[in-house]
Write a structure and sequence with these properties.
UDP-N-acetylmuramoyl-L-alanine:D-glutamate ligase; single chain; Rossmann fold; alpha/beta
């Protein structure tokens, strides 16, 4: 799904209006009705005072529609209006305001210090102050009023975006803190910045029937069920294991056998035809006892002249150490694997120690750093939003894919596109989870021979498996190996 800027969202509205032969007022009515239908599920008590905070633009118009429907359903509604002097009130807003005043049973008060003091703290605030058109940070008296509301710990339900949030990759400095955001038609870019989660606890997407034919040009995307479902095709009736790729995992050392076992086990669940683990002899024997489907080669006795051409994809690094022998093998991989190379963990740490190797990476390689590994590679960052900007530029510069593993994993491409993951949970923050991702991604790359598809599909399936593990084991008790166990359910979910 595209993540759009304010101009593109307006164009989407206009396309819908023209295509469906409706007015902007009718579209506003439809949006407000749709948000109301979702919102009342979170407002069970009709006796609670509901304060609808309205600006005088389209977001405020949506708020007026919601207020009217709430009152018609016997909710106790008071509108708090931010009405600046002058003629900058949208015509659609004024029309919706008139419909509210015609009811005659909703009080409209100015939003100021005096009004705030009179609010009952057990009430609910519906935030329809600013929508996606805000182009500067909140400041002055309005910022002070918003901060006053935040200090009162109201339950806030926001329409489209929390007021104060702008549609860019910069963290919001002041916004109305929302318990839940009811965002129109698609998620918004700032939702995927970790820094902005102090302003919102959760969001849901409300379908308001915008045109399905709108095709904007955007560099920002979400990885969702619709996208990954389009990647999956049925296995051919006439085929064999060689039809689905040969994945190689280079992983593990004396004290990190588990990393090799997890990565190769995940690769065996990826759909790849073959999986070979290249590790120390003693690790290979343990790995086969756990996953008898895999093949093994002893990397500690392999001659340097060994060819790796038979592998369709190679994933390297988890638990591999940064010793001299590991450095040697990374050099060999970079030299002899012209494509479909994935580097993780210790392989990334070696790259940070020998940055000249970055320039030698095969084109379309995939790097999978967590923030610490990323900073060792590309310099210290204090904010993840800055890290993402570097991620985009480095993907272009190195012509590679970078999977930045955070609570909201992002994937950058050589073309400058950025994909955000939409599934997963905090229970996945356990040792070994990254090893599972490497194995899964390597198997998918061997299967599909496409770095972008493999990275996006792996991140989504990994998160989906995590959500299944949460259901079965809970966030606290789930562990990395549970993700492998849940991969069949994850595949089934996106194939339905």
């Amino acid at each position: 799904m595209y993540l759009l800027d304010a101009k593109q969202i307006k164009e989407w509205d206009i396309t819908t209006i023209n295509e469906q032969n409706i007015t902007s007022l009718e579209l506003m009515e439809r949006a407000g009705q749709a948000v109301f239908n979702q919102m009342i599920k979170d407002i069970p008590n009709t006796d609670l005072p509901i304060y609808v905070l309205c600006g005088t633009g389209n977001n405020g118009g949506d708020g007026m529609v919601i207020a009217r429907h709430l009152r018609n359903n016997f909710y106790n509604v008071i509108i708090l209006e931010v009405a600046p002097e002058g003629n900058n009130k949208s015509p659609d807003y004024l029309e919706m305001r008139q419909k509210v005043t015609t009811l005659g049973n909703i009080e409209i008060l100015p939003f100021n210090e005096i009004t705030i003091l009179g609010l009952k703290s057990e009430g609910i605030i519906i935030d329809a102050l600013f929508g996606t058109g805000l182009n500067r940070p909140l400041d002055g008296q309005l910022a002070e009023l918003i901060q006053s509301l935040n200090s009162m710990f109201f339950k806030v339900l926001a329409v489209d975006v929390p007021s104060g949030m702008q549609l860019n990759l910069m963290p919001t400095t002041v916004a109305l803190k929302a318990s839940k955001v009811y965002t129109l038609q698609s998620p918004k870019l700032p939702f995927f910045l970790e820094e902005n989660w102090i302003w919102m606890e959760d969001y849901c997407v409300v379908d308001i029937g915008l045109s399905v034919n709108f095709r904007p040009v955007s560099m920002y995307h979400t990885i969702d069920a619709h996208m990954v479902n389009s990647f999956i095709t049925s296995r051919k009736k006439v085929s064999h294991k060689g039809s689905y790729g040969h994945a190689a995992i280079i992983a593990g050392d004396k004290e990190t056998a588990g990393a090799a076992i997890l990565a190769s086990g995940a690769a065996s669940r990826s759909g790849a035809g073959w999986v070979t683990l290249l590790s120390r002899s003693e690790i290979n024997s343990i790995a086969v006892s756990v996953n008898p489907e895999i093949m093994t080669r002893a990397i500690d006795i392999m001659p340097e002249s060994t060819s790796f051409s038979k592998y369709d994809a190679i994933g390297m690094g988890c638990g591999f150490s940064t010793r001299a022998t590991s450095v040697k093998w990374l050099n060999i991989m970079i030299e002899r694997q012209p494509h479909h190379l994935i580097l993780d963990a210790d392989a990334l740490n070696i790259l940070s120690a020998f940055p000249e190797l970055l320039e030698k990476l095969p084109k379309s390689s995939i790097l999978t750093p967590h923030p610490g590994e990323f900073d060792r590679l590309f310099g210290l960052h204090t904010r993840n939003c800055d890290r993402i900007q570097t991620q985009i530029s480095k993907s272009k510069e190195l012509e590679c894919y970078i999977v930045l593993k955070t609570s909201i994993t992002s994937i950058s491409t050589p073309e400058g596109n950025l994909f955000f993951n939409t599934v997963g949970n905090p229970g996945m923050a356990k040792a070994g989870s990254g090893d599972v991702l490497l194995g899964l991604m390597t198997g998918l790359l061997a299967r599909w021979k496409n770095s972008e598809k493999a990275a996006c599909l792996a991140v989504y399936l990994h998160g989906k498996a995590g959500d299944q593990a949460k259901i079965h084991f809970g966030e606290e008790a789930m562990k990395a190996s549970d993700l492998i166990q849940m991969l069949p359910d994850a595949f089934k979910a996106i194939s339905n």
